[in-house]
Amino acid sequence: MEYPHVEAVVMAGASPTQLRRLQSDLNAAARLACSASKYESVTGLLRQLHWPKVPERINFRLCMLMHHCLHDGEPAYLAKFVRRTSSRKIRRHTRSNDTVTLLVPPTRRSTLGDRTFLVADARAWKALLARVRCEPSLSIFRCQLKTYLFYVSFPE
Question: Which residues contact 86 (CB under 8 A, 6 or more apart)?
Answer without folding.
Answer: 96, 97, 98, 101
